[in-house]
Amino acid sequence: MWVSKLRAAGDASSAIKSAVGADKQPSGSLFVPDIPYFVGLFLCNGDRVGHPYVGRHYRDSGRYVCLGSPASREPLTSRFDLAQGIRQLFGQGFARAVSGYSISVDTSSSGNQGRSSTLIKCIKFFEVARRAACR
């Protein structure tokens, strides 16, 4: 399970990516490194909430899921069942532990000269049996 509190300002797309497993998967480009499977959770503006998107790279091993579309500077608290989400995105037999996480920002489509900001107040990974809240 994954819990977060996010607040964004500007037009950029911020994502928190959770890598699963250790086997590196091809990116599809000589210039982009191979990395393990991942799920990128992001705030969206006009995208479908909960829909798994495929990026330009890692077409077989990466998915981006929109958590919500809050107004600028409005906080969003979200929960994503990472174990269940991974099985839905990559197949029922897919069971690998979280091996890392990263935070990324894409400002390529930002109308603010590439400037944007995201405040991440809390990220928690916890077992399904435990429930925790970000404060």
Roughly how much helix do the residues carry, as a percent range?
under 10%
Unreliable residue stretches: 1-5
Pattern of helices and strands: EEEEEEHEE
Distance between the termini: 16 Å
Would you count the extended β strands for me? 8
Percentage of β-strand residues: over 45%
Strand order of the largest sheet: 4-5-3-2-7
Give the SSE layout.
Elements: E1 2-9, E2 13-25, E3 35-43, E4 52-53, E5 62-68, E6 75-80, H1 82-90, E7 98-106, E8 117-125
Parallel strand pairs: 3-5
Antiparallel strand pairs: 1-6, 1-8, 2-3, 2-7, 4-5
Could you list some keywords that capture this structure?
disordered N terminus, single chain, 135 residues, globular, mainly beta, five-stranded mixed sheet
Notes on the protein architecture:
The protein is mostly beta strands. 7% of the residues lie in helices and 47% in strands. The protein has one helix at 82-90, and strands at residues 2-9, 13-25, 35-43, 52-53, 62-68, 75-80, 98-106, 117-125. The strands form two sheets. A five-stranded mixed sheet has the order 4-5-3-2-7, with helices on one face. A hairpin with an 8-residue loop joins strand 4 and strand 5 (62-68).
